[in-house]
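== Protein entry: sequence and backbone fold ==
=== Local backbone shapes as whole numbers ===
==== Amino acids and backbone structure tokens ====
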Amino acid sequence: MMKGCPKCGRMVTKEEDICPYCGYKFAEIEKVYKTVLNDEQKKIPENPGLIQRLMAFYIDVLLMTLIYFIFYTLNPLNGYVDFLNINIVYVLIVFIIYFFYTVILEGSPLKGTIGLRLLNLQVVDEGGYQIGFAMAFKHNFFKFLNVLTLGIGYLALMFTKHKQTIADYFSDVYVENRSLEYNNKLFYANIFLRVLAFIIDMFILSLIYFGMTFIMNYLIVNEVFSNLKEPKLLVYSLISLIGMIYFTVLDSQGKTIGKRLFNFEVTNLNGESIGLIRSFFRTLFMIFELVLMPFAVLLVFTKPTKQTFKDLITKTVVVKKVYYK
């Protein structure tokens, strides 16, 4: 293998550190190249930590919980299984579904369950390739070790080189980030200030809520809406609609009032405005995040892009606009 000398232009072997013809030191250009690479392209840690792994697991558990409630509602085994044991049977069925769900998706070209995919994670072998169904079966079988060790198997990823659990280690698989690059030219917003901006937005919506409640009570007292049976339900529905419109419309342009106060803006991964459709879905996932996954905010501490669950799914970021004179 040969390489060219940038000074004299002659070809030398790749192992040469100094050009034998002109004395040029190749280490100089390699140093410059590495500096440029580090400035232009930084990488997210290759293997995710405990918080991301638990979040992915939680998403999959939510899906299995939904399947359980479908069984519970339809009750297809009614009359075949004793009532006291029927819930246990449904739990066992859902557990079996979960086992093969993880085996099939981890062994498939998707390289991961829905929870893993939503968080941009994948399960691979040592070479970074698809693990196949046999290895996926082995991996999920060894997950029992994580449980039997009272969770110590999961905590092992905090101390292993490639952040592997006991199940990962014994089955020779790795969980890694699918997206390893991020735009380091954006200034990602501080999470604590983001929370404060959100509180300000919710305070504004609460003022609207109290105003609507006051007007509704006035109209009911004066018998304008005397036939209205559920006035509070109407107020809740209206404020929910207003909240959806508030976040969807303002975030589509980049800024709610709370974000504007801190000069924050919601953008896509390239720093551009996200538009109404993406903003609408971001608002939907924000509601889902608040109701079912409030601890998803911890994800921001695991990623340089400081993205929460809703940001990862909709491929958005919250950035601080910096202006240069």
In short: The chain has three domains: 2-40, 50-182, 191-320. The first helix runs from residue 26 to 40. Residues 254 and 265 are 5 Å apart (CA to CA).
